[in-house]
Amino acid sequence: MKSFEDYFSEIQTDMIDICLEYANDKLDYVFIYCCCEKELIASNFFYGINKCLLKKNKLNDSPNKNPDNSIKYDTSIERQKKTLTILNQNILKIEELFKENGKEAPTEIKIIYDNIMNKMEAEYQYIPIISNSETLTDEDVFNTWFNEIKQSKKYSNN
Q: How far apart, in Å, do the first and last CA atoms of the chain sit?
């Protein structure tokens, strides 16, 4: 019989898999942001490819792209929307899983997946951030995280 942790792990793995698929599995790291506060369900993602951090719509703009330009990513709006829809559906599954098990669901999840080492790290927040602010948006929180990762220079040469 599957445990709560098994189901939770499966959902997070599905989130990683859809982001890997979006980038044709040609990446070093995927970073996934999830938010579930009150009426807000939001997600976003970006990548570490060849030591460069790239948002989902900028995958083809890497200065460190393969020399022969053989990799061309489909970053169309339609593809982005489909991926975000799946991520948001998974956020709702997480919320339902926690509710069914009498647990408090996280309001924010930040997943870092190392595609080279096949290793996942995640941070969970349980205090609403966006709904407690009059001006902060999920995009603001996502961009702040992107910039923090970029400034850490761990995943980027920028």
A: 47
